[in-house]
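Exercise (ungraded).
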Amino acid sequence: MEMGALVVTVGGNASSAVQGPGLWTPSWPVLGKTVLQRWLERVQGLGVGLVSVVDRNIHESSRVHTLVEWAKEGVEQVLLIVLGSYAEIDLLDLIRFHSEGRRQVTKVFDQQGPLGISLLDRGCILASHEQTSEDEETPSSRYDFLGYVVRLSSTANYRQLVQDALEGRCGIEPTGRQTRPRVWIDETANVDASAQIHGPCYIGPAAKIRAGVAIRGCSSVERNCEIDLGTTLDHTSVQPNTYVGPGLYFRESVVDGTRLEHLARGIAMDLGTAELSARIGTQARRVHRSPKLARVSELPAKAELL
Amino acid sequence: MTKSPPTAVMRLPEPCDHASRRFFLREVKEFIDSSYRPRLIVDLSAVEQLGPDSIDLLLECVGHAERGDGEFSVAGASPQTDLILELTQAASVLNMFPSVLEAANGRQLNNFESGKQGYARSLAA
């Protein structure tokens, strides 16, 4: 039986996320891969050959058009995933449940409500396409999921997912090699020998961790980041292509280029004015030195006086 | 009866260019050098975003105050400014208060000059 999967994303434009209350954007990777990539891997793991990813902002008719085209081509079932959560649903069990039921639609729920995941039969897609009344909804079965779910609607949810993954509370496997218990460092990352890496934590591909850096408290540094001398990351995620200046102290935050969301304080702000961080490859870096580094730099002068 | 230390309330120069920094620091030094155990409060309530030059300036003030056996505080920082001071770890070397009044709490401060743009006004208590 041929099956298709349509994944509807919320859009991955990082700049558009600034307008919301926080910085969260679906383009942020979770320990090496985005939630979308992780969903696609799971769908492809089922042997589904026909997978399409569409943006939610694209008009609904084009999504329906895709479904109808698939149905006309003989696809028997379509897994529809509207990305708004990370849920470790056993998709095989969902398909089995759907096949055993008598309804043409199965919707997945958890204790908080629908998860935006549905399994549709070919007949229902073709029938709904032919229906003129938009109000008429096809009766559906309800699949109750009691496993691991995080609804991804805020930076706090994102951090929760990162933390759960690093602590092994969900099935997300960080990319890269586990060098010590709960410490994942990609083979292409460059970590100075003096850096203090306290697990659980994740350091992604091509990341540069300079001397004296301390990374702890379920922190993650995604691909192609640079953390400069002596900076501390505590319960913090650094998004791809971000440079973080020397001698800084980040806690309970997410840094994405020049933007920062501090979860403990509930503040989202731009660090560009203070020149504390930068987007790698897009702007010149002139960063502030910390008091500690300033004092270190003063030491030779004082020594000369003595 | 004990005599309260001399206290000055200042605002950071804006823009924090080279000339205004020099002028600001000169006034700070004059105040500190001319006082016994001086108390300097920098009012940050008008600062929208703290730039690197302003942070450096605050740290230089800390150094001057320490050398002059004085006390240096900042007051009235916005949440954003407060966060910048935490991130740069400047907060670890600064005495921080929610307002100038609270910074001066326990000290006799006869007159505030926080409404004026700019520079040091020494207030002998």
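Further reading is listed at the end of the chapter. For now, observe: The helical segments of chain B are 18-33, 52-67, 79-87, 100-103. Confidence is low (pLDDT under 50) at residues 108-125 of chain B.
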